[in-house]
Amino acid sequence: MPLESNEPLDREDAPFLASGETTPPVQEEPSQYDAQKEANRKIRFRLMVTLFAMILAVEVGICMSNGPVTRIYESIACREYYAQYDPTQIGADGEVREELCKVKAVQQDLAAVKGYMEFFDGILSALLAIPYGLLADRRGRKSTICLSIPGFALNCIMQLVVMWFPNVFPLRTVWASSLAWLFGGGPVVAFAIIWTMMSDVSTEEERFGVASMGADFASSAASSWMMSLDPWLPLLLGWGLAVIGMFFALSLPETMPTNPSQPTWKQTSMEMSQVPSGSAEYKDIPSKEQEREVFSDEETIQSGEAAFTTNTTKRPFFAMVKHRFRAYMAPYSFILRNKQIMLLLTAFLVYRLSRGSSWFLVQYISTRFKWSLAEANFLMSFKPALTIPLFLFILPAISRQLLKTMKPTQKDLQLMRISIGLLAVGTLGIGLSSSIAVLIPSLLVQTSGSGFVFLTRALITTLVHRDETARLFTIIEVLQSVGNVIASLSITTVFQIGLEIGGPWIGLAWMMTATAFTLFYVGTGVAPFIPPPPPSIGFIQWIVWAALFWIRLFFFVPICLAYFLFLQWLPLPSLLRKAALWLILAVPSFWWIDLQVDGVRRGTLGNARHQARLPGPGSVIASSFTSPIDPLYLAAVFNPVFVACYPYAGEVEHLSLWQAIHRAFADPQPTPKPKARMVSLFSIMQKYPNRPIAMFPECTTTNGQGVLPLSPALLSAPHSTKIFPVTLRYDSKEVMTPVPGTYLTWLWRLLGRPTHYIRVRIGQAVVGVTAEDLPVVEPPTDEPHPDDNLPNGAPPFREDQVLVLQEQVPNHVAESLARLGRARRVALDVREKDEFVKLYRRYYWTW
């Protein structure tokens, strides 16, 4: 294993990047085990307490200072405005009454100052995050996070100087405080390291979130009360707490060996890789695919590091820059290789839009409803308080219910989609609120979706190996900085436009944010159902397609009618029946079939010893379902009995071949029709003992980009029945029918295209058995065994089948379908497709 090294990458100060050098593992003496365990326990406790104190102090400080900063900025902008247009409104103390500061010009100026300050902060943080991440690879995590201390202190001092001397410095001079993040990279680097440390030793990030939310509630309420006395009091107190919180980094345990190439037992005993992480729901054993990715990632890193040492003096300047940039980005290449990670990373960009609109929420409430900033800030203090029961009671209760029917990753995906939906509805309600009575319920709904970022972070962590989490969290923080940049420009501009228009359009920024949430919700929810785009063809090509279509239609329709009206009802020999079906496939030119079977090399499938790897009498074919061609091909090759299954039914419905083809065009059916004759899979197999059974356990068609939850009808197969996962993929995506009712469109694309190509993949048979039938694991011996390279917890298998517990059959079949089809598993089902079809038909005509 490439991850077994003397310098584990999952301790709290481990480098962000994997090292290219490995050393033999140190052999520990049994007598040292207790001492090592006690040392690890103390280090873990110290680390957790320090991180908790840092997060609590920084969260409380920032939350306490947000309202006062806005009020002081508003006061300065207001004084500048009235000094120019109406000096009589300036009091003897040099201040202007707050109610006079709600004019459009002052609020637009305030929005610009706050918005562009976030823009400059985001730009610098995004540019500095990766360099400081690479620095942490050489200096350790403690050293890197300690560099942030002067940055935080200098940022606060620069803003204080501008606010304390408004007659000397223009208000926009506060933008220069962003330069302080040159020291340490700012909050992006600091929180990336904190999240990495937390994920190394605990999966309790949500508990930190709950604690900080409780602190936010108390600090916001206290800040609102102190603002009514003097806004400088909560400002100085809040920033002081934040800076003190960063000083806690000095007490973080530093366990990085001084000479990694020559470790001693004392050094290795302090490594956090040995620290127990508790009952972690997401600490999965890496699959072989993940291990291969780790190998390739390490090779990329090594080559990247070697690139820096290459003599580049003779290279052209731009070639040298390109060479160094590729080496610079090599450690993060594992992210680009995983499409699931790329998809989930976009969620953090979208989420920052919500955070972007929240920058102006206090100002929005104060302006729209004529409240003071202290009153608006006090109302906002209840938002984190409402989040506490969500994390402590509501989300855990929903999670427990979903885990009864879903895997942890599916559960998180479903909760993530629910949360993003609540964010969309709540944010839209905030933007459209005409009174406080409408605003408060909208805030409640939006708050209910605040678990979105935690769920997404937990889900994305399961997709990488633990030595990659530091780099992953760095990229997440970089993306959130980019999101801040986008939000600061877009939200600031849109909010200013809303202030200019006035009236209900003041909430335009929240309407735009709700639209972004809705698009992300729809994008993650209907991805497996979106039809592929039509091919782009020129005029000459269109003429060729039209000619082929009419010529083939002349043969295709009579042959299909002859078979389905007459031949299929006759007692024809199996060979003649298959010949007729192949003739139907030959008309649209399905000449190229690429068939591959797990464990069989190309060209050897005809060997008698491989016949057990193919579906036969008494077995079940669990096939993907993307096109009407799927059942036609299966019938031409295996002559199976087709059955229909449903998402929540344990029984199946017997189908003819024509009915199976027609289901590819039919609307999704969550439940059987009232007159449907439902029978058990066992009874179908008894009735047709000499033929395999073919079923489409996803219960509806998809575009092949996702595997839906499978029907429980798979569980009704008798014990020891071979279930073969089968996927069919087409080079011409247009012959797929994820949207029902596209009869003529599909026929045009089928008969007009010159040729078609099918990739058929047959997986290893999954056999459900009882616990008593599982083979007994023999004690380990010194002799190698074929199963030694399997990940821990992998089911035992013979050469032609894998044995699993009966209740785990659907899960293993779904995993095989995802692997064979190069797709991801999703938590969507027939109900979501039904909703998508209804929405699709509102805007598109299907024919």
UniProtKB/TrEMBL annotation:
Region (Disordered) location: 1-35, 775-797
Annotated transmembrane regions: 47-67, 116-135, 147-166, 178-196, 232-252, 341-365, 385-403, 415-432, 472-499, 505-530, 542-569, 575-593
GO MF annotation: an example: transmembrane transporter activity
Cellular compartments annotated: Membrane
Stored SUPFAM superfamilies: MFS general substrate transporter
Keywords in alphabetical order: Membrane, Transmembrane, Transmembrane helix
Cellular component, GO annotation: membrane
Major location (coarse): membrane
Key word Transmembrane helix present: yes
Biased composition (Polar residues): 20-34
Membrane topology term: Multi-pass membrane protein
Record-linked PANTHER family: TRANSPORTER, PUTATIVE (AFU_ORTHOLOGUE AFUA_2G14230)-RELATED, ZGC:174356
Protein name as catalogued: Phospholipid/glycerol acyltransferase domain-containing protein
